[in-house]
Amino acid sequence: MPKPPLESLRFFEAAARRLSVKLAAEELHVTPGAVSQQLRKLEDCLGQPLFERHARGLTLNTAGRDYLAACQRALAEIDRATAHLIAARRVILLSCTPSFGAQWLIPRLQDFLRAHPRIDVHVSTGNRVVDLATENIHFAVRHGLGDYPGLSVSKLLDDELVPVCAPTLPARLDALSGERLLHDEHRGDWRLWSRAAGLNTLDCEQGVVCVDSNAAIEAALAGRGYALARRSLLQIELAAGRLRQLPAPPLPSALAYYLIHRPDTVRDPEMGIFKQWLLEQAAATQNKSPPSGGLET
């Protein structure tokens, strides 16, 4: 027995309810010709007409009236089932800084969403420290020393700073000059790096100060100067050749990116899946084996 296409049934339901090809087309945002084509396809599939066609519109015949009632029940059931599935999607809320979100998390997140279509991840970016308990945030990524009492803590990424530039600029130390430096809000980073690299003549008081490290990286990508940025956030740009690292040692930092959450959060299976994915992605970034449970404090 042939099965009519679902699209034809929806076109039929709209035309039968409105008794007008034109009004059905307006409702469905298609042309009247498209509606007529779907109606003919359905009638051909069923082997009998469903309408009596007149100059002023349509009239359902007996078969059409019976079929409309059955289609409306079936379509309503499909709509209810769809709404139930959508409502059943698990939403995970994560807070992080704009630079971590834009440079590291978002480029990788689409892979997770494709692998887990029933999980939605809502990312809130900002530099404000959120309260996981009172604001109902499931996870947060913090940049600090890892001391977060009462919370579960897993180190994600170390925080070496490396000098980078776009391919349009020479990736050489002798090309560095004060006016070409791109600073983030921590203006002292270039001073610390130049001292560690032995470039004591570099005037680190010059250059453009950006609102945050993400803005500094964007300026570097546009060829506006040299940025000092966290290597862990630049992996994709460096691998793609959109940025080049200057031949100089990185500036180590005691700071790192940490994933934190309330201890009971990962009792939810979907939350546990998302946490493990984050740890695996971070381990791949730094070529390490992912921790089984993270650093618990």
TrEMBL record:
Provenance organism: Chromobacterium aquaticum
Listed SUPFAM superfamilies: Periplasmic binding protein-like II, Winged helix' DNA-binding domain
Matches recorded under Pfam families: HTH_1, LysR_substrate
Similarity comment: family membership: Belongs to the LysR transcriptional regulatory family.
UniProt keyword list: DNA-binding, Transcription, Transcription regulation
Cell inner membrane as UniProt keyword: no
Keyword Transcription regulation: yes
Annotated HTH lysR-type domain residues: 4-61
Name of the protein in question: LysR substrate-binding domain-containing protein
InterPro entries from the UniProt entry: LysR-type_TF_proteobact-type (IPR058163), LysR_HTH_N (IPR000847), LysR_subst-bd (IPR005119), WH-like_DNA-bd_sf (IPR036388), WH_DNA-bd_sf (IPR036390)
Domain of life: Bacteria
